[in-house]
Amino acid sequence: MNQSFQESQNLRSILMWIVLIGLLFFSIFLSLSQLLFKIPVGNNPMPNWAVVCLLLFSILLLLMTALTRLDLSINNEGIKIDFRPLGKEEILWREVKQVSIKPLNMISIGRRYSPKTGHIYNAGADHSLNIELKNGRKVMVSTRQVDSLKVYLKRIKKL
User: Fold this and answer.
1) Which of 70, 73, 104, 133 could crosslink 137 through cysteines, CB 3.0-4.6 Å?
2) What is the percent of the chain where pLDDT is above 90?
3) Residue 14 belongs to what domain range?
4) CB-CB neighbours of 43 under 10 Å
């Protein structure tokens, strides 16, 4: 009998990956053209230091996105959210007023705050675990394992 629920999510937005890879290819093209072959790009070319900065930024952004992972861990004691490298949070069941699972109609990914839904941890899934705390604070965590999460929460009598 499973004593906890575990889920790990990577960022899966196809559009985001197309944009990031496109930015990387553009910055590589720009760097090769302007720095290696000495052919300026455009009517008003970027300075060489800016080309290097763009290339480094593109590589760093792509690596950070690839390493970003949302881990959700739920057991009899509480809920742990670890959204590397964007932060983590632990919520004990005694602090929770109620939880629910709902469809997630958001295009954005990442960690943010909304006055309506509270703190949002979204890795691009289509459902979310919505947590309302006794102090009125709200937390929303995306999930791709909807059925398993529902079964687990019902088993520990939290849903």
Assistant:
1) 133
2) 77
3) 8-67
4) 5
